[in-house]
Specification:
0% of the residues lie in helices and 50% in strands. The chain has 124 residues and is mostly beta strands. The strands form 2 sheets. Strands 2, 4, 5, 6, 9, 10 and 11 form a 7-stranded mixed beta sheet that branches. The protein has a 4-stranded antiparallel beta sheet with strand order 1-3-8-7, with no helix packed on it.
C-alpha cells in the first residue's frame, strides 16, 4: 500500500506560480513511478505529468510543456509539480498518483494509488 497526501494548492492570479507537493508513505516509493492528474469542474480527469521511479524519465501533457516541471526527491519520499505561467484554464483539482511499476505512463489506469487532491484556482 502507498498513501499519498498532496499539498500546495491555492488561489493564484494568472501568470503566477505554485508548487504542489505529494508526500508518499508505505511501499518503497523510490520503486514507483509517480504522476499528476487534474480534474476541472464538469470535465474528466486528465494527465498532467509523470516521472519514473528513478527520476530520469518524465512525460508532460502538451498543454503544460514549458510551464510545469515534475520532480522527485526519493530521500524525502516526495514528488513535486512546479507550475509556472498559470492560466485560468489550469484551474482544477490536482491529484497525485503512484504506480506499482517503475515506468511512468500517461493513462490513469496505469496508477494504483491516488491522493485526495488539492485545489488549484487561477484567477484572470
Amino acid at each position: 500500500q502507498v498513501q499519498l497526501v498532496e499539498s500546495g494548492g491555492g488561489l493564484v492570479q494568472a501568470g503566477g506560480s505554485l508548487r504542489l507537493s505529494c508526500a508518499a508513505s508505505g511501499r518503497t516509493v523510490s520503486m514507483t513511478a509517480m504522476g499528476w492528474f487534474r480534474q476541472a469542474p464538469g470535465k474528466g480527469r486528465e494527465f498532467v505529468a509523470a516521472v519514473s521511479a528513478g527520476g530520469g524519465t518524465t512525460y508532460y501533457a502538451d498543454f503544460v510543456k514549458g510551464r510545469f516541471t515534475i520532480s522527485r526527491d526519493n530521500a524525502k519520499n516526495t514528488v513535486y509539480l512546479q507550475m509556472n505561467s498559470l492560466k485560468p484554464a489550469d484551474t482544477a483539482v490536482y491529484y497525485c498518483a503512484a504506480s506499482r511499476s517503475v515506468y511512468p505512463a500517461t493513462t490513469d489506469y496505469h496508477y494504483d494509488y491516488w491522493g485526495q487532491g488539492t485545489q488549484v484556482t487561477v484567477s484572470s
